[in-house]
Amino acid sequence: MATFLYKLGRLAFRRRHFVALIWVALLTLAGVGAASAPAAGNSSFSIPGTEAQKAFDLLEQRFPGMSADGATARVVFKAPDGEKMTDAANKATVEKTVKELSDGSEVASVADPYEGNAVSKDGTIAYASVSYKVSGMELEDSSREALETAADEARDAGLTVEVGGDALQTTPETGATEIIGIAVAAVVLVITFGSLLAAGLPLLTAIVGVGIGVSTIAALASALDLGSTTSTLASMIGLAVGIDYALFIVSRYRGELAEGRTREDAAGRAVGTAGSAVVFAGLTVVIALVGLSVVNIPMLTKMGVAAAGTVVIAVLIALTMIPALLGYAGRRVRPAGEKSKLLGGGRAKSAEKAARPNMGTRWASFVVRRPVAVLLLGVIGLGAAAIPATSLELGLPDDGSQPTATTQRKAYDLLSDGFGPGFNGPLMIVVDAQGSDDPQAAFTEVGDEIKGLKDVVTVTPAAPNKAGDTATITVIPDSKPSSVSTEDLVHAIRDKGTEIKAGTDAEVLVTGSTAMNIDVSQKLNDALIPYLILVVGLAFLLLIVVFRSILVPLKAALGFLLSVMAALGAVVAVFQWGWLSGLLGVEETGPVMSMMPIFMVGVVFGLAMDYEVFLVTRMREAYVHGEKPAQAVVTGFRHGARVVTAAAVIMMAVFAGFIGSSESMIKMIGFGLAVAVFFDAFVVRMAIVPAVLALLGKRAWWLPKWLDRALPNVDVEGEGLRTSSDADDDRELVRA
């Protein structure tokens, strides 16, 4: 592979006009496609295989037009001090608001609080329920604006009005955080390369790659039901790996120049060596992202595949566009050790400074001398950080986890005050009595059995459909939606339903947003182990091919698990226990988002293997070229530590920018990923990895002879480049 990529790099350098034209054309084509394609709405949301989804599907069949999985909103009214919602003036304001809410084209129904007994016992709080024909993810902005306008008019009349429910669910804006990440990346790249031009190349190519990827997603969004949320992960990961991959190749190019190679040959060798690592690092990220499909949540699958496509684009750009731009830059990209005069650097380092070992060399030498102490300190430290993960509680965010200043949180609190905490998470019971001899008796029995369960406040009478064979029952729990007690109640109702079916042949299903959240959490939890086995297993096999070793990939996988567990522990400590919550702006502690563990595994595994491949391939290269194992570790750090450190700092900056989001879910993702990258890059890859390799010595690179013969030789370390002549390469390129 190294030889092929070497030829590709030289060809891209020499034919830079053609290569640049291809990428500009692709960017233009994707942009035109995005501009001319139908506007992307929010994708449909379904969770196949869950009881809650089965109940929604049944309701669609038995209650046509009900839109059981449609968005809902609760407009909560509170009377001024000393007044009641039943006063004539307040009642007139509410009735006017209800009429305005009914006008929207996506509105299915609006329940008047005075007709539906939705006034609190003390008469100070009332609410109007709005049901929509489409889900919250599909709701048009005009419907949300109409909802907010109606609430504003009621406020102007003197009432306190707040709006809750998933109808206000929107896609978080991330543009500002991406700009912050790019700005920090620019600073780090300038410091790393000592040159504005060299620093600008990774930024330019990363932006081009993300532009092509996101524009393609936008162009295909309507046809493939991708939705506006799909591009979020693609842009974040695409920007991250795009900068990383270009960073490694430009850094290797400058290193080759410093060894006295011509610019064309340096570009070829940079792509042949660092480019080989880019290919395999990219493959690990693609495996991790595409592997999200094992969860069987369509939206998550689409996000993973779209992000994987953007990673593939980033790899191709790094292998072709970077050497082409290096050809344009010419002598303005200087060899390693030379800094731009603009930054105060001279033409070359002094002999004394050039001979001085860099920070990576000094650190690696220390670790090689004290491997046991460094290994124990790293493992114990990560183990201590992982302790909070043993009390991990999973759930999905609801309005109760919103910042206290939002209208959703205020509506949530008003409803809790007026009607009890469980009122924010009603359970919908669907009774399918089509196979029962006496459906009405079955409906009654279900209601009576549920009334006798613990943590139940209210059970409404059964509401049958026109055929009389299916009914819905609403259950109000005594606890808030995200509590363990409410989850236990859902399981208790389902257990009771099994008994009822045995006696009446009526099937009892529990659904609603609360039950759906519980089912999603369980589905994600059940999928975590299979996902880990799939992703880590495939990547393990891939790394065996790359490193031609059994122990190095095993060490890489175990180190990754350590860093993920430590990061999950930090997330639990902050977002569940409340440590440093004030400093990070966490206003409400509670269960960790259900998607967090599997999301962290996917994203962090891909990035962790990036650092593993880039750092350890340098060690493997030195070992193959004759250095002793301990010296190879030091050599790998001398050439790779600075670049890996820069890449990790950039990733941390990109992810940490999301901590400032007002959305608790985005804040949690940003914090978790930033901490995970810190642990993996600076504790696992920079400390544990060299310590383990130093202890293993030659055994680290052991591979059974039969397996060595069976594996393809991908030559990531570029050994083939030492035995091929430039003249032969040129003749082959002409024939190609």
Q: In angstroms, what separates the terminal alpha carbons? A: 16 Å
CATH topology of the largest domain: Multidrug efflux transporter AcrB transmembrane fold
DSSP summary: helix tally: 24
Gross morphology:
elongated
Strand content: 5-15%
Query: What is the β-strand count?
Result: 11
The CATH superfamily label of the largest domain reads: Multidrug efflux transporter AcrB transmembrane domain
What is the CATH architecture annotation of the largest domain?
Answer: Up-down Bundle
The CATH C-level class name of the largest domain: Mainly Alpha
Biggest β-sheet: count, sense, barrel? Answer: 5 strands, antiparallel
Secondary-structure-based class equals alpha+beta
Specify Rg, calculated over alpha carbons: 30 Å
Task: Outline the low-pLDDT stretches.
Answer: 345-354, 725-736
What level of helicity do the residues show? 55-70%
Mean pLDDT: 81
What count of structural domains? 4
List the helices and strands and how they pair.
Layout: H1 2-14, H2 16-36, H3 51-62, E1 72-78, H4 88-101, E2 107-111, E3 125-132, H5 141-156, E4 160-164, H6 175-193, H7 196-224, H8 230-258, H9 263-290, H10 298-329, H11 351-355, H12 359-369, H13 371-386, E5 394-395, H14 407-419, E6 427-432, H15 439-451, E7 456-459, E8 463-464, E9 470-477, H16 484-504, E10 507-511, H17 513-547, H18 551-576, H19 581-584, E11 592-593, H20 596-624, H21 629-656, H22 664-696, H23 705-710, H24 726-735
Parallel strand pairs: 5-11
Antiparallel strand pairs: 1-3, 1-4, 2-3, 6-9, 6-10, 7-9, 8-9
Helix pairs in contact: 1-2, 1-9, 1-10, 2-7, 2-10, 4-5, 6-7, 6-8, 6-21, 7-8, 7-10, 8-9, 8-10, 8-21, 9-10, 9-17, 9-20, 12-21, 12-22, 13-18, 13-22, 15-16, 17-18, 17-20, 18-20, 18-22, 20-21, 20-22, 21-22
